Amino acid sequence: MGYMVDTAFIVKFTPLYIEAMGLVLELCFFGVLFSLIIGLFCAIVRYYRIPVLRSAAGVYIELSRNTPLVIQLFFLYFGLPRVGITFDSFTCAVTGLSFLGGSYMAEAFRGGLEAIGRGQIESGLSIGLSRSQLVRYVALPQALAVAAPALGANVIFLLKETSVVSIVALADLMSLAKDLIGLYYKTNEALLMLVAGYLILLLPLSGLFRFAERRLRYAGFGN
Amino acid sequence: MTDTMILDRLNAVKPAEERGAPLLEISHLRKEYDGVPALRDISLRIDKQEVVVVLGPSGCGKSTLLRCMNGLERIQAGEILLDGGVLTTEKTDWRLIRQKIGMVFQSYELFPHMTVLENILLGPLKVQKRKRKEAETAARVLLERVGLYEKRTAFPRQLSGGQKQRAAIIRALVMEPEIMLFDEITAALDPEMVREVLDVMLELARSRMTMVIVTHEMQFAKAAADRIVFMDEGEVVEDSPPGDFFVKPKTERARRFLNIFQF
Ligand SMILES: Nc1ncnc2c1ncn2[C@@H]1O[C@H](COP(=O)(O)OP(=O)(O)OP(=O)(O)O)[C@@H](O)[C@H]1O
Ligand SMILES: [Mg+2]
Q1: Which of B29, B33, B181, B217 has most ligand 1 atoms within 8 Å of its beta carbon, as the pocket-test mutant?
Q2: How many degrees, rounded to 5, is the angle at CA B204 between CA B198 and CA B205?
Q3: Which pLDDT value is given to residue B204?
Q4: Which long-range contacts (CB under 8 A, 24 or more apart) does A184-192 make?
Q5: Torsion angle defined by CA atoms of residues B167, B169, B175 and B180, in that order, rounded to the nearest 10 degrees
Q6: How many whole angstroms separate alpha carbon B10 and alpha carbon B13?
Q7: What is the rounded distance in angstroms from the CA atom of residue B119 to the CA atom of residue B101?
Q8: Which of A61, A134, A167, B52 has a CA 20 to 30 Å removed from the CA of B94?
Q9: Which of B162, B219, B217 has its CA nearest to residue B184?
């Protein structure tokens, strides 16, 4: 059964897909950035057992890990306006992604920090380093090397999670494909381009992470 | 400061008149882990320029004692004084105190992501805010003294155990501490590397660095110590010059301990 791919359709809508890919990248970039900041903060607060903040971080992580992104976005986009707080779609999506990603990044950082032996911390203390100097010069560089694979996996996870942001009326790859199918019934072409769009984003990224991970392994810490 | 001035300062044998003044005084120190005492009632005085070797069976509290001395452990009772100042108050600024107390660990604990030189310069530059040039000169002098200057750009993983331990000693020494604490620093080393590290400590002893050394190397203890402190079950059981301790120990517990090392 010969099925001809409608190349004209593909050519026509490629710019829209590229635009959507741009949006996905942009969302992912800010989502990852804020996730890293939130994650690092939570991890350090928990690692040093800072009272109050530490339990707050714990509650946040539970909450973030146990609710789907769709629900989080729903709350931000439809729930908050009812109490008078409105965000635009993009802000909602980035906030949702960061809220979700922050807890995953926190766990990755924490894993890295906990891999650092007590002896490292004590030898840092014994030359007179302050707590913040310890984090900056001793703990973080080592924790990053350990956490790198998990951090990379989280970036890819967040990029895939952007596929639900159409709920806040953003034209990401997923919603574009859905719309095109609805309008033109070109299911095969639309899906083909959807898959291609994600692959073009994900493959180089995961390749980059694999490379970075190998480099870090070769750097092979260990006393 | 010129190189020669730094060199003179680092190589200087401390003037003998300082000798005998108390530097570190511990009185009625008690340390518990979850209600179980690790140190029961320790009183100990370490004078300036004195080399004190702490001996005792495994688990008797030697490491705990050293760790209390530089605030790595919170104590339950007693007092520690450094140079007459009380360390064991709530307000103690351990960051300042620890610059005066160098500590070397059995497991080296060099920072694996830094070169030897970076390891050594971290304290002088970030904690003491010394000038890079001056700190580098001090580091060079010390590294040359222990034969490690060629290894300054190596990472810890590229060094032998003995080299790592010598680098760790320099990392503590470069802070110009008033007293050095050594916790079984040769215990993890291959036998052929033990010597090179003991030699460094012997040389420090000769330059009259004040030192508290926990070790199982009896020959070294005999050669280096001004005083032997023998501990058992969280208490100081004997405190005497090596000549007395090794020849005619006062207590049965010390005799039994020494007998193990006869064979
Ligand atoms: N972090 C800790 N938590 C609970 N108990 C501890 C801890 N550290 C040490 N102890 C206990 O305190 C006692 C003294 O331990 P310490 O490490 O000071 O002995 P040590 O004389 O250094 O022994 P070794 O020669 O084996 O190094 C031991 O009974 C040990 O089990
Ligand atoms: Mg010990």
Answers
A1: B33
A2: 90
A3: 93
A4: A184/A9, A186/A6, A186/A9, A188/A3, A188/A5, A189/A5, A189/A6, A189/A9, A189/A10, A190/A13, A192/A5, A192/A10
A5: 170
A6: 9
A7: 17
A8: B52
A9: B217
Confidence of residue A222 (pLDDT cuts 50, 70, 90): very low
Ligand nearest to the CA of B55: 1
Architecture of domain B21-111+179-260: 3-Layer(aba) Sandwich (3.40)
CB contact under 8 A, B156 and A223: yes
Q: What share of chain A is helix, strand, coil (3-state, %, to 5)?
A: 85, 0, 15
Q: Which of B101, B113, B126 sits opposite A221 (nearest CB)?
A: B113
Pocket test for ligand 1, best of B30, B53, B64 (most atoms within 8 A of CB): B64
Cα B67 to chain center, whole Å?
11
CA-derived radius of gyration, chain B? 18
Map tokens 């000769």 to a residue: B206
CA distance B240 to chain A (A): 29
The pTM for the full model equals 0.84
Distance of CA B259 to the CA centre of its chain: 26
Q: Are B39 and B61 in contact (CB under 8 A)?
A: yes
Cβ pair A119:B101 closer than 8 A: no
- Per-domain boundaries in chain A: 7-216
Residue B231's contacts (CB-CB under 8 Å, 6 or more residues apart) are: B54, B55, B56, B60, B61, B62, B65, B237
Please say whether the beta carbons of B107 and B182 come within 8 A: no
What is the predicted pLDDT for the residue at A169?
76
pLDDT in tens, A55-94: 999 999 999 999 999 898 988 888 888 888 888 889 999 9
Q: Which of A155-169, A208-222, B162-176 has the lowest mean pLDDT?
A: A208-222
Closest residue CA from atom 12 of ligand 1: B38
Classified as helix, coil or strand, A69 is helix
Arithmetic mean of pLDDT, B173-179: 96
To the nearest whole percent, how much of chain B has pLDDT over 90?
A: 82
* Position B207 pLDDT exceeds 80: yes
How are the residues of chain B apportioned to helix, strand and coil, as percentages rounded to the nearest 5?
Answer: 40, 25, 35
Strand, helix or coil for residue A191: helix
Measured in angstroms, the CA of A158 and the nearest CA of chain B are apart by: 30
